[in-house]
Amino acid sequence: MTTIDLRIIKSKRDIQTGFMGLLQTKPFREITVNDICQTALVGRSTYYRHYVDKYALLEAIVATQTRHFDDLLTQRLTALEYDTGLVALYQDLTADRQTILTLFAIHEPQADLSATFFNSLKHHIEPLLQQFSFTVPTTFIVELYATNALTAIRWSLENGQVTDIATFMNDLLKPLLIKYRA
Fold first, then answer.
1. In the chain, where does the domain assigned CATH 1.10.10.60 lie?
2. pLDDT tens readout for residues 48-76
3. Which pTM was predicted?
4. What would the pLDDT profile of 111-135 be if each residue is shown by its tens digit?
5. CATH top-level class for 60-179?
6. CATH assignment of 1-51?
7. What is the 3-state secondary structure (H, E, C) of the chain?
8. Where in the chain is the domain with CATH 1.10.357?
């Protein structure tokens, strides 16, 4: 049986919370490890025990958010016809609203939440569309859906109106999918 060291959990939590707080006031490129340590109230040796640099910290947070999003898509995106799945997805994301919106603004090659959400959407929507034949390439429809879904997610997190946005998304795409079926 493994034991969980609460100090490690608390240190990582404090570092990540301090980092996310800093991102509210400073651009990512201007934040230093020293800034993170001061904000998190941890020593540099504690920081470096967990993360190589600020990029590794960003990657860890993006990876956590991406895994969570992927899990939500697996649970919620079961069919294209139902607004309830999209509404539930948007509502589930609302709990991490500030973190997601903050990370959407950062575009580092190894840690781009917007890009990972986009790829995850494509990965989950493609099997739902593969069951049909279309007169336009399915890859185009997958890209279009993922782009629109990501825009809708971002907009609903920024502005609310979750149900209206989910309904609009489905009302917009359902007729197109029917019209262009082969």
1. 1-51
2. 999 999 999 999 999 999 999 999 998 87
3. 0.88
4. 999 999 999 999 998 988 888 888 8
5. mainly alpha
6. 1.10.10.60
7. CCCCCHHHHHHHHHHHHHHHHHHCCCCHHHCCHHHHHHHHCCCHHHHHHHCCCHHHHHHHHHHHHHHHHHHHHHHHCCCCCCHHHHHHHHHHHHCCHHHHHHHHCCCECCECHHHHHHHHHHHHHHHHHHCCCECCCHHHHHHHHHHHHHHHHHHHHHHCCHHHHHHHHHHHHHHHHHHCEC
8. 60-179
